[in-house]
Amino acid sequence: MPQAQDLESMLKQQTTTLGRLLSLIDAETKALVERDADTLLQLAAEKQQVLEHVAKIDKSLAEHPHKQQLTQAPLSKQVADAKSLLAVCQQKNLANGKLIELCAASVNRLAQALQMSRNANSLTYDDKGKTSTISSLGNDLEA
Predict the structure, then answer these.
(1) What is the rounded distance in angstroms from the CA atom of residue 55 to the CA atom of residue 59?
(2) Whose CA, among 4, 82, 138, 139, lies 20 to 30 Å from 97?
(3) Contacts of 39 (CB under 8 A, 6+ apart)
(4) Which pLDDT tens digit goes with each residue over 26-45?
(5) Is 0.85 topped by the overall pTM?
(6) How far is the C-alpha of 94 from the C-alpha of 101, rounded, in Å?
(7) pLDDT digits over 102-125, tens only?
(8) Tell me, what's the pLDDT at 1?
(9) What was the pLDDT predicted at 135?
(10) Structural contact between residues 7 and 1, judged by C-beta atoms closer than 8 angstroms
C-alpha cells in the first residue's frame, strides 16, 4: 500500500507545516502586542513562505491519484486533524487582523493628537476629514 503511505506522509507534512504556521501566528500576536515592527516584518515573510508550502501540499493531495483514500479510515482522522489545525490558524489570524486594525487606529489618533498639540491655534481639516495645519495651506500657490 505505498499510495496510502505516500498520502500519510503528505498529511503528516501538512500537519507539521500547519503547526509551524500556528506558532508564527502566535509569535505575530506577541509582536503586535509589543509593537515590534521589525519582528512583524520578519514574521510576515515567514508566514508567506509557510502558506505557500501549505498550498503546495494541498494541491499535491488534491491531485493524488488515490485521493479518495483521504475520506477513509485511518487517513480521514489525519485529514480532520489538519482541518482542525487550519481552522485554529484562521481564527487566530483573524484576531491578529483585528489587532492590527486597532493598532493602526491608535497610531492615527496619536498622530492627530500630536499635530493638534504642535499648533493648536491653526488646526483645520482637509477634504477627507483629516487634520491639517494652516501653516501647510497655500504652500502651492503661485502669484
Answers:
(1) 6
(2) 82
(3) 27, 31
(4) 999 999 999 899 999 999 99
(5) no
(6) 11
(7) 888 888 888 887 777 766 566 667
(8) 44
(9) 55
(10) no
- Look up residue 118 and give its three cell numbers: 504642535
Q: Which triple of cell numbers denotes residue 142? A: 503661485
Question: What 3-state DSSP class applies to 1?
Answer: coil
Contact between 112 and 44 under an 8 Å Cβ cutoff? The reply is no
Q: What is the DSSP secondary-structure string of 34-96?
A: HT-HHHHHHHHHHHHHHHHHHHHHHHHHHH-TTGGGGGSTTHHHHHHHHHHHHHHHHHHHHHH
* Cβ(131)–Cβ(124) below 8 Å: yes
Amino acid identity of residue 123, one-letter, is L
* Cα distances (angstroms) measured from residue 44 to each of 18, 25, 53, 88, 91: 15, 9, 14, 18, 17
Is cis: bond before 74, omega within 30 of 0?
A: yes
